[in-house]
Amino acid sequence: MTSTTHPAIHTTGLTKHYDDVPALVDLDLEVRRGEVFGFLGPNGAGKTTTIRTLLDLIRPTAGSASILGLDTRADAVEIRRHIGYLPSDLAMYPNLTGKDLLTYFANLRGGVDWGHVDALATRLKADLGKKVGDLSSGNRQKVGIIQAFMSRPDLVLMDEPSTGLDPLVQQEFQTMMREVADDGRSVFLSSHTLSEVQRVADRVGIIRQGRLVDVEGVHDLRSKAIRRVELVFDAPVTAEEFAGVAGVRDTQVRDNAIMLSFDGHMEELLAVATGRHHLVDINSEEADLEEIFLAYYREDAVDGESREEAMA
Amino acid sequence: MLLSSIFAKSVRDRWTGELVAGIAMAVLLWMTMAIYADFDVSFYYDLPEAAQQLAGIDPAVGGLAGLAYGSIYNLLGALTLAGIAISIGASGVAGEERDGTISLLLGNPRSRSRLLGAKTTAMVVLSVFGLVLLWIGGLASPAVLDQDVSGVNLVALLVHLGANAVLWGLLATAIGAWTGNRTAASGAAAGLMVGSYLAASIVPLFPDVADWAAVSPWYWFSGANPAANGIDAGYLALQLGTAALLAAVAFVGVNRRDLRERRGRTTLVDRLRSHPMTQRYADRVAGSARVSSLVAKASSDHQALLVVVGGIVAMLGLYYGPMYNLIPEAFADAMNQFPDALMSMIGQADISTGAGWLQAELFSLVVPIGFITVLVSVGAKSLAGEEADRTMGLLLANPVSRSRVLFAKAAVLVLYAVALVVIASIGALAGALLGGLDVSLPNVVVTMSLGGLLGLVMGAVAFLVGAATGRVRWATSTATGVALLAYFAWSFLPLSQDLAGWADWSPFDWYLGSDPLLTGVDWTDVGLFVVTITILVVLAVPMFARRDLRG
User: Fold this and answer.
1) Which are the contacts of B244, defined by CB distance < 8 A and separation ≥ 6?
2) Alpha carbons B459 and B456: distance in angstroms, whole number
3) What is the maximum alpha-carbon separation in chain A?
4) Interface test mutation site (partner B, options A19, A49, A79, A93, max chain B beta carbons within 10 A)
5) Does pLDDT of B526 surpass 60?
6) In angstroms, what CA-CA distances link A99 with A165, A292, B135, B395?
7) B31: exposed, middle or buried (Cβ count in 10 Å: 0-12, 13-18, 19+)
8) What is the 3-state secondary structure of B298-321?
């Protein structure tokens, strides 16, 4: 067994170029024991490159990484005894049944408890008797999740794991991730969905264009969360009336409605909205990642120094 | 316009096959004419009528033209063009269903009928393209070789041949349109086509039932001897009428059923696994045993190819033994007078002896082609295949090193070579015994084993390129190129005194160069094979270990 004093993942200046194109730049990251770490970024940000480098499927151009204290290059095989992996856009041997596939990997791995496998299959309502090629993408994903969890690994690395899962199964899957963390083991969860990461992760790393933008606790992130808010009134309003509320940006007025980006306190906004007008309808939705990144960059421009301190 | 783009895409996906087939047929026609140009070919017309019919030889035309156009166009060309049409027809709608792209396609504002129409039009246009190539080849060969083929009505032959191809293609289309099962469509149509060809060739030989041959669609093409007699309006009407009927059937079928989603193949073993009586046993073989290790899993991956190709080589071995007693003396004498270049291609074998016959018919081409096909395909897919299928990452997330995966896959390549040698040897030995050939049976096994090593060298080339690049196609084409180069080096370099020494470097020379059928095993050759194969596999280790993997 690996010593539990080492972090689950530790990278130092990890860099990967494809030919001359940088896919990952100077990644310094630490994932602790007993946490679910969300790795958040838009498509093409470098999430998959990071995971594939950690697994020694591709080799870093510069920098190094260790998993559970073991070097990802030198101790690659030993590391794989302790991890579970679920690739993105999962492809498996289509002519094997789920059961065959799990047996194959269990044989390569050794020491898999089939009672545990059956329990996982029951929890996810997975059909292991069918050929993988005949399964829908969500049901195939369940087989992939079981194979990542079945050996009770010290670290589970998952790349966009919720693809195709229905909400009920997603919830069960999130419970499974929490159980791993509560057991003192770790989960590295790559995702482009903020809400998913918020629900399950302890800490979140945000990656954009190959660079780590920020690492923070999920509660801090939530307090920063920007929302798109639409307020509908019974009569026309002006943008100026809302400009004074802290956290309001990008206001657009159309007839009786106003749309704005908002990361302040909701009660202040509502106070202005209901104070002078008759509010008919309100719509609020999570901003997409790109907007959050833009918000981060805006802050960076103003407050770059203190952010770097925060990261250190 | 979507219709034109479905049509255009279908043509684009398929035109290379038709091009290769057309050129291959033209080259074969030219080779046949060139080889037989200076011989008296009348002995072919003394062969039993059944043999002539089956070989496509056209006695109504006679002479060189009857032999060349008959055996190449009447038979090979007709079977090939019809086979391609069947393949295109079967993939039409059923192929899109198998690939899971049909719903995407029909998500556009076009009807099923228009989709089928576009696919069918593409099939017909491609068949016409193939015919044009055959027509050009058919005119060019006699012109280049200065042969008189005035008795041949090439256009009439090709019109009937083309109508025949379209008819079989539409049969496959119709079956595919009704079932949505591509494999069933191509299998059933190809089976019916071969049955029809056999019926058209054999039934006329029995006077009592000869008239029934006209029931077979193939007879509407070959029975009228269009090359000699011109277009037969009645038979052509039958061909085109049947084709139109099949097209109508296809349109009805595709519009009246539920379209299928993408699904995996259901094999015999799957059925056994789902049947309560056989479940336990089949589960053990197909399930737990198959996935018990890297080697077991990899061994199960290409069984179909092994069984089919191994079976064909074994069948041909079985067939050529007794065949030896049937060839006329005159033919053997004629062949022994063939130009040196042609004799080189079959390893300078003297086919008047049993060993020479086996070498010329079985070992010089059939065994290398069969073995190299299987082992190059398996070698190329060993490592690169897992990357292309994007399963390599999943596999290597387990505690196995890259080199352990590599050696397991290499071991499977060797196992496949052994299996091929065993299967093919059984056929060849049985054939030699049945035909009473004057050849040493142990030497047959030795030669077959050397063939296995030859295939293994080419397989190892594919394996190495696959390990170094992760690309199946590069691996396959490099190994195929090396095999062709080695074959031509061995065949043709000895014709030049200055270059003859270089032929020793060809693995084909290590295979047949010491006449193993006559002299038995030459350990130097075995050593060269083993060393080369080992070097190729060992080189693959660092190539595979130091690379970024693709999947």
Assistant:
1) none
2) 5
3) 70
4) A93
5) yes
6) 20, 42, 56, 16
7) middle
8) HHHCCHHHHHHHHHHHHHHHHHHH
Interface contact B287-A89, CB threshold 8 A: no
Across the interface, do A77 and B401 touch by the CB < 8 Å criterion?
yes
**C-beta atoms of A55 and B264 within 8 A:** no
pLDDT digits (tens, 9 = 90+) for A226-278: 788 899 999 888 888 888 888 888 888 988 899 988 888 888 888 888 888 89
**Which residues contact residue A212 at a Cβ distance below 8 angstroms, ignoring those fewer than 6 apart?**
A27, A28, A29, A205, A206
ipTM: 0.77
Domains of chain A, earliest start first: 9-223 (3.40.50.300), 227-286 (3.30.70.100)
Q: Which of B381, B382, B467, B459 is nearest to B420 (CA)?
A: B459
Summarize chain B as % helix, strand, coil (round to 5): 80, 0, 20
Rounded to an integer, the average pLDDT of A78-105 is: 91
Confidence of residue A280 (pLDDT cuts 50, 70, 90): very high
Mean pLDDT of B273-298: 78
Which residues of chain A lie closer than 8 angstroms to B544, CB-CB? none
What does the block give as tokens for B171?
């049969």
Numbered residues of chain A with Cβ closer than 8 Å to any chain B Cβ: 52, 55-59, 76-78, 80-81, 83-85, 87, 89-97, 99-101, 103-105, 107-110, 131-134, 144, 147
3-state secondary structure of B501: helix
Tell me the count of A-B CB pairs closer than 8 A: 86
The end-to-end CA distance of chain A, in Å, is 30
